[in-house]
User: Fold RNA pseudouridylate synthase domain-containing protein 2 from Cotesia glomerata.
Amino acid sequence: MGKCLITLNELLIGHSTFHYSSKIVLNTAKLETKALKAKRPGFTDDRYNETSYYIENGLRKVYPYYFTFTTFTKGRWVGEKILEVFAREFRAHPAEEYERCIRAGTLTVNYQRVDVDYKLRHNDLLANVVHRHEVPVTSEPITVIHMDEDVVVVNKPASIPVSGVLL
Assistant:
């Protein structure tokens, strides 16, 4: 059996070539991501103005509306079928519902229709258009009990959800 000999210099040159080419691939991927993010629907004033609400029987109700959920392909999803990923990672619906959405074209990849057997690639932008119906909340006003430069205390109705934010 023959031996393969490689000099330290050859090893270092090969390593730097690999390092250089992997940097190019990484930079290209970052540019692709940036370009795709520019196409990704964001939470702009226009997005918020798409919805409206009305008061009925003491409740504030939001008219049903369409919303586009978007995400980029995670590294662990690359090479997997889109239907398998959605069935496993997004459990809000059964796999059959995601299959229906893919076939109907409301669940897309890079804003293009794909087959249920489509295998995800790096930087694929997944978009799922859903029809939202929000839970009604009370129309009672929110009153400020105390406010200073460190804290705001409010008396809000229990049906209005909150999200804590630490600054």
Notes: DSSP finds four helices and eight strands in the chain.
